[in-house]
TrEMBL record:
Family of the protein in this entry: Belongs to the NADH dehydrogenase family.
Enzyme class of the recorded protein, top EC level: oxidoreductase
GO molecular function: NADH dehydrogenase (quinone) (non-electrogenic) activity
Disordered: annotated span: 415-435
UniProt-listed Enzyme Commission number(s): 1.6.5.9
Protein name, per record: NADH:ubiquinone reductase (non-electrogenic)
Domain FAD/NAD(P)-binding: 5-318
Pfam families xrefs: Pyr_redox_2
InterPro entries: FAD/NAD-bd_sf (IPR036188), FAD/NAD-binding_dom (IPR023753), NDH-2 (IPR045024)
Keyword terms, alphabetized: FAD, Flavoprotein, NAD, Oxidoreductase
Reaction(s) catalysed (UniProt annotation): a quinone + NADH + H(+) = a quinol + NAD(+)
Amino acid sequence: MTTALVLGGGLAGVAAAQALGQNAVTTTLVDRADYHQFQPLLYQVATSQLPAEDIARPLRTIFAAEADVDVVVQDVVAASFADRSLTLADGRTLTADHLVVAAGGRPNFFGIPGAAEHTFPLYSVADAERLRRHHRALVTEAAGTQVEPGALDIVVVGGGPTGVEVSGALAELFTALRKAGKLPDEGRVHLVDRGHAVLGPFSERAQQYAHRKLTDDGVLLRLGTGVDAVHPDHVELSDGTHLPTRTVIWAGGETGPEIVQSAGATTGRGGRLDVRPDLSVEGFPGVWAVGDVANVPSGPGEGVPTLPQLGSVAQQSGRWAGENVARLTRGEATRPFHYKDKGIMAMIGRNAAVAEVGAHRHEVDGPLAFAAWLGVHAMLLSGVHSRTDAFLSWAWDYFDRDHAATVESHDTPRRIAWGDDSQDVPHIDLGAPRT
Ligand SMILES: Cc1cc2nc3c(=O)[nH]c(=O)nc-3n(C[C@H](O)[C@H](O)[C@H](O)COP(=O)(O)OP(=O)(O)OC[C@H]3O[C@@H](n4cnc5c(N)ncnc54)[C@H](O)[C@@H]3O)c2cc1C
């Protein structure tokens, strides 16, 4: 009997455990949360478009039908690649024939003073829910009293896909709140980035589309400008400006999680684990790394570029590593990872998106790009939920209908009609430590 441990229940860890379980490998998946969290919809939670429960699915529900997969809900406090072991917060140590590391990433604050203490990262449903509650409290406060200038402003740091998507969604929320008479005129969204264009990895056309859309929606773009320090009530920018704000969202980059820094392997670019083409970790037989925690090569051979931190990379690499373990158990050779490139895309607002579809990067924007976004995300979601029809129906409504008159930050947002039982509700602990 072959055994495996999977560290992390994100898209990569779930896909790996599913592949292992389906190949009769006795698998234990460990995560500090009792639920999988679907990161691409985090900013919809942060901006009150979705309740947190709708994008968090209990891991035990996901694996209910997998007899060979057991779920352990514990913080992993140490890992040893040499022993293929995980030490849990409750004192137990688990070991197995294979260890699949799928521990995701964490924000990289680049040592900027105050950034770790005073910003809101957006990595988990707890992060998104904390941000939503913080903003709601500010809006409620502003409705009753005069607040200081800038108190309602939000500064988003980082103009990559996450920063652009969250800025677009916030601008929409601000417009909706203003129309409903719930937000005074002064609340603004500022997007700050050291680069000279938003959406760095995209084509110039997509960058210009996103720039135009954000500006039209009232987002103040501060490009070519860095953040030098973050304080509870303002940020210091590299051009000497002090921007008053009580809300700074960190979308400024990510690095490998703490747990892999002391597990025995030297980490590579971005504090992530370098892997061989078959996703195994050099020098540690039986250890694999997948998803955001890994520098996944885009093809065979030395020095090839690595793939970006994307949901489809996480899901496909997780599945591939699980299948490679299964190949070894059958006495076969492992196979180098082959990525089916779906392209890159970003949703800038309810009715605006950019997409570069497929490996050839066919450029589209507007409704077509939204349709591409929907297709790719429905596929990602299908790995953790059978009711993609419910997601599609919510998403078309989100895209189609002007929620401006109804969306209020303290109202219950429109839910995805998952039709779940009460036992399928996750336990979201806002005090839980971050990845
Ligand atoms: C806001 C946001 C929006 C995004 N939007 C998109 C998008 O639109 N499209 C797209 O393709 N990609 C998107 N991405 C990227 C995509 O979500 C990630 O690439 C993907 O989810 C990574 O999956 P993963 O399984 O590698 O890591 P994660 O999903 O981060 O999972 C890691 C898991 O490991 C667990 N873990 C870590 N350390 C420990 C420990 N010590 N003990 C116990 N458990 C631990 C964590 O709790 C977590 O559940 C987005 C990411 C973010 C943050």
